[in-house]
Design goal:
The chain has 174 residues and is of the alpha/beta class. It has 6 helices and 7 strands. Catalyzes ATP-dependent phosphorylation of adenosylcobinamide and addition of GMP to adenosylcobinamide phosphate.
Length: 174
């Protein structure tokens, strides 16, 4: 079973994703954060999220999704693709260089992660942000991120068994 859970910021998507795996005997929580220190607000949010997860869950921080999924034991929760995209764009210098120079590498990495997910022997739940429902960003970087995240989400959704949209804590099956 593979499930993509999407929604806006603070919509309840992570909580819903966690609830899908609460009965699993072992869960590997993959946090694809950039390899930088989190600011105080993000660190506090990460601490709250980790505290609410069962103690038998393992946390793995890695922007290399394919490798992380391949080494994961039990069910997998990836939270979230927006963090992965930001980390990968930074690593590939996507914010400053020409899109055609790095975009193929980005989607190769995504395809590799999707192959690892397809081969995984236990349920996988992937969380992402729905970034395309708001105001069009003024800055190039914001538009680039929004457009790429939309493409990444569509790519992942096409490979999932189920897709759920979370709005105000309510779950809609798509």
């Amino acid at each position: 079973m593979t499930v993509l859970v999407t929604g806006g910021a603070r919509s309840g998507k992570s909580l819903h994703a966690e609830s899908l795996l609460v009965a699993e005997p072992h869960v590997t929580y993959i946090a694809p954060r950039p390899t930088i220190e989190l600011d105080d607000e993000r660190a506090a949010q990460a601490a709250v999220q980790q505290a609410r997860r069962p103690s038998h869950w393992t946390t793995l921080e890695s922007a290399d999704l394919a490798s992380a999924v391949r080494q994961a034991e039990g069910a997998v929760l990836i939270d979230c693709l927006a963090s992965w995209l930001g980390a990968t764009l930074s690593e590939l210098d996507g914010w400053e260089s020409l899109r055609e120079d790095w975009e193929p590498v980005l989607f190769e990495r995504l395809d590799d992660a999707l192959a690892a997910i397809a081969q995984h022997h236990a349920p996988v739940v992937v969380v992402t942000n729905e970034a395309g429902m708001g105001v069009v960003p003024d800055q190039r970087a914001g538009r680039l991120f929004r457009d790429l995240l939309g493409a990444v989400n569509q790519h992942v959704a096409a490979e999932c068994d189920e897709v759920a949209l979370v709005v105000a804590g309510r779950v809609l099956s798509l």
